[in-house]
Amino acid sequence: MRISELAEASGVSLPTLKYYLREGLLMPGAATARTRAEYDGTHLERLRLVRALVESGGLGIAAVRAVIAALDDPPASPHELLGVAHHALPLPVEPIARSEEVVGWMHDLGWESCLRSPLLGALTRAVADVRAAGVPLPDTAVRAYAEAALRLAAVDVAIAARATSPAAALHTVVVGTVMIDPLIAILRRLAQEVESTRVLGA
Amino acid sequence: MRISELAEASGVSLPTLKYYLREGLLMPGAATARTRAEYDGTHLERLRLVRALVESGGLGIAAVRAVIAALDDPPASPHELLGVAHHALPLPVEPIARSEEVVGWMHDLGWESCLRSPLLGALTRAVADVRAAGVPLPDTAVRAYAEAALRLAAVDVAIAARATSPAAALHTVVVGTVMIDPLIAILRRLAQEVESTRVLGA
DNA sequence: CCGGTTGGATAGTGTCGCTATCTGGAACTC
DNA sequence: GAGTTCCAGATAGCGACACTATCCAACCGG
User: Quick check: B26 and B10 in contact, CB under 8 A?
Assistant: First the structure.
């Protein structure tokens, strides 16, 4: 299809398509002449990915480019997969130096495999920010959140394990990680309503 | 303290302080003269809240203003508390018309108390976006996510229940809801590493 | 009584994600 | 083959946002 058809099929405006081409978020079509190129389903798919990452995932253009670069260059072993995925993704908050407290939590939880993760710096920052905002956050609460997070992660891994190729698995993990965050945020708020009516009665 | 001292104590630049005053995010100090005002600990506290909401929570100025307005006007009953809190908070994604599917999920989960929530439109959108990005998302996965979300919410409610006044509870719920989202996102990624090494072996 | 700070107002900055326009050329239509 | 439509590539502009800078008159502290 031609670019105008791609615009119509994807719902993305033609100037925006050109912008994405310039920024390298969308690969060029097959040139059929010096002023004509042919686009296909892969372009449509890529566009859906880009729009989803930007709109629902809240990623910036540079972050989307990094994600795409990672997806185009999948690791050989499933072992490195998460590392590549998490490295391509921006952190939810700016990390600071990891605190003793969070390292202690990792030990308590038996999460020794995370001790080298740069995410611990982000976790330290997130906890500090919550407390700075005046919300009490005892050890037990973090522990409970972590245990619930493990259940979330079990679902994530189960979904990713169904992928048929490393490339597909990487796609699922990267996109799933960033796009399911808002899904979980919404489910959490709904669950708060459920839980609070349960606790407080009608 | 004077405004310049407030700037130094809070780490927020003086022009930014003036900006927050203009935007109504920071209440005016007690005027000691026509060109002099006195600020105190409450201003420092408010500033910490604003910075946390903006930097860690990712809220815009308008959203912060709405949150602050809600906090300054707490509801009488704990029953309305969540409604006020959720109403003041921006949705993680732009909602669309709720689908039959998500309504069905609410019934399956026994979450009938959510059937009127505007969050269902956002949930519909989030699910559609995940699928548009090419990640399979079966019923069972959403169900499992929802059950984990219920555990998260149980912790939220337990934290909020320890507040001593409706105003404090509202503060905890609003701030906790928006600021703990990134915390959960980070814990989820750490848990993914744990879970994947568990499943894939070393 | 005078240098330095303050409140209030207004204007400017940098970033981001597009959006609009221009140009030369190619393709389709009749 | 003339007329119309479309396209790639390049450049410039826009609107929102979160600040940031500057100016001025008032006023305090020494």
Answer: no
Rounded distance, CA A61 to CA B140, Å?
33
Count of domains observed in chain A:
2
Task: Specify whether B48 is located in the same domain as B112.
Answer: no
Average pLDDT for runs of 10 along chain B of length 202: 93 96 94 88 94 93 94 82 89 93 97 94 94 92 97 95 88 91 96 90 64
Residue pair A84/A183 in contact by the 8 Å Cβ criterion: no
Contact B183 A126 (CB under 8 A): yes
Considering all nucleic acid strands, name the nucleotide whose C1' atom is nearest to the C-alpha of residue B50: D18
Range of the domain at B81: 76-200
- The DSSP annotation for B27-59 comes to PPPEEEETTEEE--HHHHHHHHHHHIIIIIT--
In a domain, A25, yes or no: yes
State the number of CA atoms in the 13 A half-sphere of A60 facing the CB.
Answer: 5
Asked if residue B64 is part of any domain, the answer here is: no
Same domain, B176 and B101: yes
By the 8 A CB rule, do B130 and A179 touch? yes
CB B123 within 8 A of CB A180: no
What are φ and ψ of residue B99, in 5° steps? -90, 160
pLDDT, averaged per 10 consecutive residues of chain A (202 residues), comes to: 94 96 94 88 95 93 94 82 89 93 97 94 94 92 97 95 88 92 96 90 64
**Pair B94, B145 in one domain:** yes
**A-chain residues near B137 (CB < 8 A):** 159
Give the residue among B85, B156, B75 at the shortest CA–CA distance from B117: B85
Query: Are A34 and A88 contained in the same domain?
Result: no
Distance (Å) from the alpha carbon of B121 to chain A's nearest alpha carbon:
10
Looking at residue A76, what is its pLDDT? 76
One domain, residues B29 and B125: no
Beta-bridge partner residues of A38 = A30
